């Protein structure tokens, strides 16, 4: 009995001893290594506005996403990373990083960029240089490099919008001969209420082969012509690089006359009120060739309610999630993201040309080396406005006719308005007959939402417009079939036909 009690005591003592040793070792390791680990840990902050949804991505895309936000050196606690650009400068095996960030401690903080480079003397990465840019809205910022001057030293370009919804461009030139703390110099900073374009030109074969330098690109800025009564009139300001001063300087200013459009309607569309311009572009838009003809092989479809933008060109369809919209003086600036490749972002600068046409400028933020399809820059015209030139439409845009229908008595006026009388109630709206792909279509825009819901056409009660294919059934009667205009053409919704019988 005593031996058993003594053995139990020995076991308990051994367990207690081992526990003390284990705890002491663990605490010692925590005190020894915790500080060292915190010093070398890099913070990865992903803005929610860019990647708000969880999705399956492949390993290559995951690496590209990490490269977009992962810095070699942790930034300060009050600094939030927006984007990271990795550059191979060829001077050492390690890449140079340019990081765009914001400071949380500053109200309406501008977007800053910093240069992170490997320091051979200390054997670690260091921040060599910091500078502010003209952009302030982080969700609109695009950070990329380009040989802007033709000297094979890539410039850093930062585009985006500021707090006044103006387009901004800040360009930094790299100077390999300067000290690391002065490796980049600001050569242009623009804030324009219109748009900014880098006008690229084809460089010589000698430049392509590395024999000679190339010609520097010019920068075009389009701003409002304050001396004109027409809202759409613009001033085109050209900036060229001056080697003597080392900066871009204004070269000339030219007037660009805009379309003569009813100014009251223009002020409504360009008022900046939420959703006004989004609703205006809610449609199918065909590309207008330089010759002024519609190209049905390239078109866009904007769906603000579904928050999608569909690009169709080169027989390829691309769908982008409509992330955010920012009104500008001449239209809207949209940030979008490819639904299949989340690292592919597309920035759309849309300007109003007339009440049936828009001008589009697109820039892409590509973190994967993929094949980019057709250029999307140019003018687009609303699909429902132009009639087919192959033959005259069988139905004119406006008619004066009276029909009986399952909805009630439908009266079309040649002014583009209609009335629908049913059970003593009269409802109003607007209509238009038009043609797409040789199909006669009718669009109804009721003043009250979903007024056709209970009459046989099973549309969404929240819809404020409905589109039908129009077929003639003889004796001036019409048959309407509900359709949807999509990027791939006219889609039949298979909801059954609605007959319109003329009233004698």
Assembly of the depicted chains: single chain
Q: How many domain modules?
A: 3
Percent of residues in helices comes to 10-25%
Integer-rounded radius of gyration: 31 Å
Mean pLDDT: 78
Ends apart, CA distance between termini: 118 Å
Structural class: mainly beta
Total strands: 28
Note the total helix count: 5
Major beta sheet, strand line-up: 13-14-15-16-17-18-19-20
Main beta-sheet strand count, sense and barrel state = 8 strands, antiparallel, barrel
Shape: elongated
Strand content range: over 45%
Q: Low-confidence stretches at least 5 residues in length (pLDDT < 50)?
A: 21-64, 368-373, 385-395, 453-462
Brief overview:
The model is unreliable at 21-64, 368-373, 385-395 and 453-462 (pLDDT under 50). This protein has an 8-stranded antiparallel barrel with strand order 13-14-15-16-17-18-19-20. Strands 21-22-23-24-25-26-27-28 form an 8-stranded antiparallel beta barrel. It contains 5 helices and 28 strands.
């Amino acid at each position: 009995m005593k031996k058993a009690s003594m053995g139990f005591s020995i076991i308990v003592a051994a367990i207690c001893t081992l526990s003390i040793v284990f705890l002491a070792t663990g605490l010692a390791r925590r005190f020894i290594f915790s500080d060292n680990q915190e010093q070398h840990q890099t913070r990865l902050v992903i803005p929610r506005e860019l990647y708000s949804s969880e999705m399956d991505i492949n390993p290559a895309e995951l690496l590209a996403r990490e490269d977009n936000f992962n810095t070699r050196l942790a930034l300060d606690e009050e600094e939030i990373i927006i984007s990271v650009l990795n550059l191979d400068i060829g001077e050492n095996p390690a890449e140079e990083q340019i990081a765009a960030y914001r400071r949380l401690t500053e109200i309406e903080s501008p977007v800053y960029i910093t240069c992170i480079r490997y320091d051979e003397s200390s054997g670690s990465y260091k921040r060599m240089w910091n500078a502010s840019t003209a952009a302030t809205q982080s969700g609109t910022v695009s950070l990329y490099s380009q040989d802007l001057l033709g000297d094979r030293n890539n410039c850093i370009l930062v585009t985006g919008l500021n707090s006044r919804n103006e387009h901004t461009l800040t360009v930094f030139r790299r100077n390999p001969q300067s000290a690391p703390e002065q490796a980049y110099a600001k050569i242009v900073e623009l804030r324009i209420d219109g748009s900014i374009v880098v006008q690229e030109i084809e460089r010589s074969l000698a430049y392509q082969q590395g024999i000679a330098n190339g010609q520097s690109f010019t920068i075009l800025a389009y701003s409002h012509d304050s001396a004109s009564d027409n809202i759409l009139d613009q001033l085109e300001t050209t900036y060229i690089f001056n080697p003597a001063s080392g900066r871009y300087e204004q070269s000339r200013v030219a007037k660009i006359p805009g379309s003569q459009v009813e100014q009251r309607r223009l002020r409504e569309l360009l008022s900046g009120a939420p959703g006004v311009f989004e609703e205006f572009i809610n449609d199918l838009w065909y590309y207008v060739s330089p010759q002024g003809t519609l190209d049905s092989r390239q078109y866009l479809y904007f769906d603000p309610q579904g928050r999608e933008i569909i690009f169709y060109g080169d027989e390829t369809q691309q769908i982008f999630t409509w992330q955010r919209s920012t009104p500008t003086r001449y239209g809207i600036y949209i940030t979008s993201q490819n639904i299949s490749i989340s690292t592919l972002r597309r920035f759309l600068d849309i300007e109003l040309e007339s009440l049936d046409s828009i001008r589009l400028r697109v820039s892409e933020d590509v973190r994967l080396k993929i094949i980019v399809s057709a250029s999307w820059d140019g003018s687009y015209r609303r699909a429902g406005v132009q009639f087919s030139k192959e033959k005259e439409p069988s139905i004119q845009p406006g008619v004066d006719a009276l029909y009986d229908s399952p909805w009630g008595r439908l009266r079309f006026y040649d002014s583009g308005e209609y009335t629908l009388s049913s059970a003593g109630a009269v409802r109003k709206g607007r209509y238009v007959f038009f043609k797409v792909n040789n199909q006669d279509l009718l669009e109804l825009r009721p003043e009250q939402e979903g007024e056709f819901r209970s009459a046989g056409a099973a549309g969404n009660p929240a819809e404020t417009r409905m589109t039908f294919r129009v077929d003639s059934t003889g004796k001036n009667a019409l048959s309407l079939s509900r359709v949807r205009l999509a990027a791939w053409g006219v889609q039949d919704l298979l909801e059954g036909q609605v007959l319109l019988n003329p009233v004698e």
